[in-house]
Design goal:
single chain; mainly beta
């Protein structure tokens, strides 16, 4: 028996263009209860990154593809197929890398190998929508002599920042101490610069503030104004907005604000022409606001959500969806005077004519530092299998 342990050192979330590093340890455990132990032999081990593409057959119509054929190879064949047994299509894969050949492990002995690969910048982000799913995995295949191939899959998440791949690093870098005997130092240095560049670009894009004022009105008149200071956010930030109903002609009884994503399939891939767009609500604020002059809301953009993106098949956009309930009568009829003789009391009316209307405000949501997203990731940094 051999235990295979794969560990992502920095966490399970990466930015497209970064280098994924995984330490893979093979161990021949020494059991205390066993009286006799023998060496174990592995013929080979290899690793490869791939992205699986899933679609809902009721919503998406894909053209026939030669790559979607079922895997008919037997399990005992010495062919490394990372997506064997997986649903959907493999739309992206890196070249396989051999970790070793003919590894012998004595009882209690273990050996570790480091797998490094740059994540493609032209791939889609990780996404689990109602119509489409993009799932990234690192698959480690290994085989014992005269035994079937065993696969260890390590799922991880990829964030894509548009425009990052077009940036050219300057050639005249600052002079810094370096070790000429470490071949991988330049690659790690470039990876670190890429993460720093992405953080800087995100900071610049999301720190710009300018006052955006919107008049809220229906067919009967003005209800109030809405104010927001920016429309570009990172995942993990809070969307904050304020309302001013003091200058409105129509009393607002209640409002709700929903932070939503809009998942739409490109027209040529729609199962039915004109099929509706899929909406997902990530946060919602609702408030009764009769006789309220000002109000505000704060909606967090979940770190686990997917920033907006567009591929040839699907498009994901973010928006704020507003719903207002206004009175169909004048302000004075919203309250009635009680019949007590000593004091005057005002109570709400039992029935009221109301009008409802909605409004959508598009916003832009970008990725964040992948280290922050790793804290709330559903994936584990460590995965193991026994062969």
């Amino acid at each position: 028996m051999i235990e295979v342990l794969a560990k992502l050192g920095r966490g399970p979330v990466f930015l497209a263009g970064e280098v994924l590093e995984c330490v893979i340890t093979f161990t021949n455990p020494l059991s205390a209860s066993s009286t006799s132990a023998s060496s174990e032999m592995l013929a080979w081990a290899s690793a490869q990154i791939h992205c699986q593409f899933h679609t809902s057959e009721n919503r998406v119509a894909l053209p026939p593809s030669d790559g979607s054929k079922h895997d008919v190879q037997a399990e005992n064949e010495t062919v490394f197929v990372p997506n064997r047994g997986e649903r959907g299509q493999c739309i992206l894969s890196t070249p396989p890398k051999i970790l070793f050949c003919d590894l012998r492990l004595d009882p209690g002995e273990s050996k570790s190998y480091s797998y490094c690969e740059t994540l493609p910048v032209d791939g889609p982000p990780s996404f689990r929508g109602q119509s489409v799913k993009y799932v990234y995995k690192l698959t480690i295949g290994c085989q014992r002599v005269n035994s079937p191939i065993k696969l260890l899959r390590v799922p991880f998440r990829v964030l894509v920042l548009q425009g990052l791949k077009d940036y050219q690093f300057p050639q005249d870098e600052a002079v810094a101490p370096s070790n000429p005997f470490l071949e991988e130092e330049e690659g790690l240095k470039k990876d670190s610069r890429l993460a720093d560049l992405a953080t800087e670009l995100l900071m610049v894009a999301t720190s710009r503030r300018s006052l955006h004022l919107y008049n809220i009105s229906n067919t009967r008149g003005k209800v109030g104004t809405f104010c927001i200071f920016k429309t570009v956010y990172k995942i993990g930030e809070d969307v904050i907005g304020t309302f001013n109903f003091s200058e409105g002609d129509i009393p607002c009884l209640q409002f709700s604000v929903s932070l939503q994503t809009e998942e739409s399939i490109q027209e040529e891939f729609q199962r039915r022409r004109g099929q509706p767009v899929s909406y997902t609500t990530h946060a919602r604020h609702q408030e009764a606001c009769l006789h309220t002059a000002q109000s505000s809301f704060s909606l967090p953009v979940p770190l686990s959500s997917t920033p907006g993106f567009t591929t040839n098949i699907v498009s994901l956009k973010w928006r704020l969806h507003f719903e207002f309930v206004t009175s169909g009568e004048s302000m004075g009829t919203c309250l009635v005077r009680g019949s007590q003789s000593e004091a005057i009391t005002w109570t709400g009316v039992e029935q009221m004519e109301v009008d409802t209307f909605s409004w959508d405000l598009p916003i832009k949501v970008l990725p964040t530092n992948p280290i922050l997203a790793s804290y709330v990731s559903q994936f584990s940094s460590t995965n193991s299998i026994t062969i």
